Amino acid sequence: MEPLGATTVFLVICISCLLFLSAWRKRSGSGKLPPGPIAFPIIGNTLQLNTKNLPQHIDEVRLFSCEKYGSIFTIYLGSERVVVLYGYEIMKEALIGLGEEFSGRGSIIVILLNGERWKKLRRFALTNLRNFGMGKKSIEDRIQEETRFLVERLRNTHGRPFDPTLFLTHAVSNVICSIVFGDRFDYEDKKFVTLINIIDENGKLQRSPWTALYNFFPTLMDYLPGPHHRLFKNALEFRRFVLERVNMHKESLDRNCPRDFIDAFLIKMEERKNGQSDFTVGSLVRSTVELFVAGTGTTSVTMKFGLLILLKYPEIEEKVHKEIDRVIGRSRSPCMTDRSQMPYTDAVIHEIQRYINLVPLGLPHAVTRDVHLKQYLIPKVNFDIKLVCAKILLF
After folding, report:
1. Coil, strand, or helix at residue 368?
2. Which of 115, 230, 265, 280 is the most buried (most CB within 10 A)?
3. Residues with Cβ < 8 Å from 389, sequence gap 6 or more?
4. Phi and psi torsions of 67, nearest 5°
5. CB–CB of 54/105 below 8 Å?
6. How far apart are CA 267 and CA 146, in angstroms?
7. What pTM, to 2 d.p., does this model score?
8. Which residues are within 8 A (CB) of 327 and not within 5 positions of it... i.e. 6 or more apart?
9. In this structure, how many other beta carbons lie within 10 angstroms of the beta carbon of residue 306?
């Protein structure tokens, strides 16, 4: 038993030394990084952070250690090294002053595309969304049409209390559907309901500690049971839904008259089919999923919080109503040309967007090359930059 005990102790010492060496090499080869709390090997600062409310806890860490760390500091989420940028000034310097260098996307479970390929597809998506109505009258017509369906649903509540969350999600998603698929869905359509349920469930899962742990320890969490596996099952089901629509578009495609985003993408694929291209069915499906995920949740949640804020401040709601009655009246739908005549309503909408802190941590960024920020050097390697906005109270 004694030799076995000595062997065990020797192995523990060796493993500990290897872990310490690994952590030391990671720090020593990472440039002059911003300071941060001491991290343990493998688990990093995980035990020091509240994964149930990570944004609030990072906020507390920064406020508690303001003099020690300032507006830029380093933490370790598991073995992943992360620089936290906190506050308006430092993020302006990074994202605007060094916009190209900070344009990479960090590794995280919800990110689907990255790198130069993502940039090309993003440019194509933005161009074609404009062509199919983004910022033009056609998108205005689609929004007005969907608004009429939404108002009818609200009327059908007959003045009873109700939760508007699902109504708003359906309306926003249907506007995206009209641009991407060329048509809207009936609110009771089974496939549409499934689509919304997937978006809603994945939104909740992404905010859960299970997903935070997956981002910290992806290899380990792949083998552990838990609700985080639902993210992948839901994503697969969503892709099947989109792929089904893509195949339907292929059968009825008119290259001289694209109807929507999918048609435009399929035409681009035809143009590039003889050479290596980033425009494939796979990238079309992923781009479409990203449009839904990015657009549906953010817009509907903003509208929901806007309603809650106006309920809390009825005097502001009253001023908005007066401006609406004066400029638009009650006999027609609002349109974009009304915006210039409604400065108060325009200002309230912008303040709502600023105030609600929609994505507390922002999406992770990664530097595209070695970058000097303040007196620190942030190396290119697989290095995430977490952007944390300081919340400024309103009213």
Report:
1. coil
2. 265
3. 87, 88, 91, 357, 360, 362
4. -70, -30
5. no
6. 28
7. 0.74
8. 338, 341, 342
9. 18
246-283: burial string, b at 16+ Cβ within 10 Å, e else: beebeeeeeeeebebbbbbbbbbbeeeeeeeebbeeeb
The answer to whether the Cα torsion of 59, 63, 69, 70 is positive or negative is positive
One-letter amino acid for residue 161 of the chain? P
Model confidence pLDDT, tens digit, residues 157-189: 988 988 999 999 999 999 988 888 888 899 999
- Domains of the chain by start residue, with CATH: 20-107+364-388 (no CATH), 115-306 (1.10.630.10), 313-358 (no CATH)
Burial class (CB in 10 A: 0-12, 13-18, 19+), 180: buried
Helix (H, G, I), strand (E, B) or coil at 318: helix
Q: What gap in Å lies between CA 84 and CA 71, rounded to an integer?
A: 8
| pLDDT of 110 strictly over 60 | no
Calpha distance 246→206 (Å, rounded): 27
The angle, 0 to 180 degrees and rounded to 10, between the axes of the packed helices 229-251 and 190-206 is 140
Closest of 392, 363, 369, 382 to residue 85, by C-alpha: 363
**Rg of the chain's alpha carbons, rounded to an integer?**
25
Alpha helices in the chain (DSSP H): 2-28, 54-64, 66-69, 88-92, 115-131, 137-155, 165-180, 190-206, 209-216, 218-221, 229-251, 261-271, 281-312, 314-327, 343-355
Q: pLDDT per residue over 300-353, tens digit each?
A: 989 999 999 999 999 999 999 999 999 999 888 898 899 999 999 999 999 999
- Residue 72: C-alpha distances to residues 44, 107, 268 (Å): 18, 20, 43
CA distance 288 to 353: 24
CB 62 within 8 A of CB 34: no
